Amino acid sequence: MAKINGTGVRLRAFRADDADALAAGFDDPLSRRFLPPLPSPYTVAHAERYLAEHVVATSAEGGALYAIADPETDELLGGIGVDKVVPLRRQAEVGYWVGPWARRRGVATAALRALSTHALGHGLERLELLTHLDNPVSQRVAMAAAFRREGLRRGAQPGRDGARDDMVVFTRLAGDPEAPEPRLLPDLPGGELSDGVVRLRPLGPGDYDFLTALLNLPEVVATSVPPDPPTAERIRRRCDRAETQWLGGTRADLVIEDAVTGEPVGDIGLFYDDPFTQQAMIGYSMMPAYRGRGLPTRAAQLLSLWVFAETDVARLIAGAAPDNVASQRVLEKAGFHREAYLRARLPGPDGKRADDVQYVLLAEDLLD
Asked: 288-295: long-range contacts at Cβ-Cβ below 8 A with a sequence spacing of 24 or more?
C-alpha cells in the first residue's frame, strides 16, 4: 500500500502498534454515536481483531483502509478508507474518523482531500460519502473537500436501538472542480448578528426546552403550518438538525436573544425553498413577556440585511394572518411592503383553509 501525502497528514498502512490509539478513537462517545456497528465499549482486543481481519478483508474486496498519521511524528490521528467498491460503475464509498486528540485541526478534511484525489486519479470515477443528519461537523468536512450534497438516503444506517437512520449523501466525481461549491446560506459573520439590542444566533441542540415552551404557546400553534402542537420528537429533530438544514441551504433557524442579558426571547427563520427564482421567506415568534418592545422588527431587519448582503436571495417574503395586525406592523416597520391577499393559502384548524396577507422586501427597499 503506497503512502499518500496530504496537507499536514500522511495516509499509511495500519500497523499492529496502532491498536491502542485505534481502540481509544473508536471508544470515544462521538465515534460510538455515529458509528453504531462498533462494539461498546471498544477494547484493545477489538482493535487488534480489526487490524488483523477487517483491514485485510476490505483490501480483499477491492477497498483500502488507511491510517491517518502525523507526517512528523507518525502518531495515529484517525482512519480513512474506501469500500463498497462497484467495479462496473467505477464507484466506491469513502468514510473516515478522527480521534478526539486530533480534532478541530483540519485532519479529516486534509485526509479526505488526499484520498479522494488519489482514488479518482487511479480508476474510480465516483465517490459517495454518507453522513448522519445529526453530524454537521462531518458534513462540513465533506463540503470542504469538494463533495457535493446529493440527497437523502432513507434508513441507510442501522442504529443501536434497532431503528434505521437516514443519511445525507455527498458525492465527488472525477471531473468535479477541487474547490468547494459556494453555499446558498453561508455562516453568520462571527457566528451571530446583533444591533446591540437583539442578537440572533443559530438554533442548536441546547435550545430544546426554550423552543418547546415557545412553539407550544396557543397563539404560536395557531399560526404554525400546519396549526398543530409540535411533538417532542419534532422539536428535538429541529434543534439537532438545524445546522444540517443550514448547510444544505434550505433553512436557517435562529434564536432571538436579548443582547444585554442573553435571554432567549423568540425565534426567527429563513426558508429558502425557491432558489431558482431567488425567493425566500421569513417567519418569527416571540415569548409573551417580550412582545410590544420592537424586538421582532429589529430581528427581521438584521436578518434581512444579512440575507441581501451575503446570499443571492433577491426577493424576501413574509406572511401574516389577516387579523394579526401586530405581525403586519412588525413587517411594515422592518421595511416590507404589503403585496397580496392570498385566499385559502394555508391549512387552518379543523381541516379548513386560512387566508394569508403577503408582504415582500427587495434589497432596494432597504435604501428608502
From this structure: 288/217, 289/265, 290/258, 290/265, 290/266, 291/326, 294/333, 295/197, 295/198, 295/256, 295/258, 295/265, 295/266
- Residue-wise pLDDT for 181-234, tens only, equals 899 999 999 999 999 999 999 999 999 999 999 999 999 998 888 889 999 999
Contact 279, 317 (CB under 8 A): yes
The angle, 0 to 180 degrees and rounded to 10, between the axes of the packed helices 107-120 and 136-144 is 50
Closest CA to 62 of 112, 132, 122: 122
Determine the Cα–Cα distance for residues 143 and 248; give it in Å rounded to an integer.
10
Grid coordinates representing 225? 403550518
Residue 289's Cβ-side half-sphere holds a number of Cα atoms within 13 Å equal to 7
- Whole-model pTM: value is 0.93
| Phi–psi pair at 62, nearest 5 degrees | 100, 0
CATH of domain 4-173: 3.40.630.30
Whether CATH 3.40.630.30 fits 189-367: yes
